[in-house]
Fold:
Amino acid sequence: MTKSLISILCLTLILSCKTTVKTFQTADTNKIGVKSKKFKGTIFKSTYPKDKLFILETDSLTKFTPTKEDTELAETILKEQIQKVNNSRVNQFGKKQYIDKNLNKYFRQYIGFSNKQGDSVVHINFYWDRFTIFDRIKGYWDDRLKYTSDYSMTLDGGSRYWNVNVNLTDKQLYGLFVNGVA
Structure:
């Protein structure tokens, strides 16, 4: 009886960490929409022009289109490791701005590529997606939060704009970059 209860609790814990996403084709043939219960985003297909990407590692490497399963795995690794990787809290001020505490408040952009070792890596670009009505009145919002928006690079903005790489092969999160503040 006790072993059964422990098994059920372990299975529940494992399943609760897994992120389930739905994918769909957007009006742009180079982009796939992503939705979960907690966030949304865009997968950029391997056919998306390299000259529109601003990721140093992808310049000379092979791109791939992340699948639904790749995206779910990347999100699971992100949830499991972001707190440790973000331990130094660079460019994050006050508990409300910690990116690891606000993961579900960002629109994502996913780009798949193979690194020099041949590992499959998903680069995830994050954009703040929780602008209040008061933010909008003040003129704060982001038009890039659409499934058909192009890949964007933002300067400044602190914890509202950041990116990270997820190595799907060795299941490691690395290369966290949180924008600076002007």
Q: What stands out?
A: The radius of gyration is 17 Å. The helical segments are 2-17, 68-85, 133-137. The first helix runs from residue 2 to 17. The longest strand covers residues 106-114.
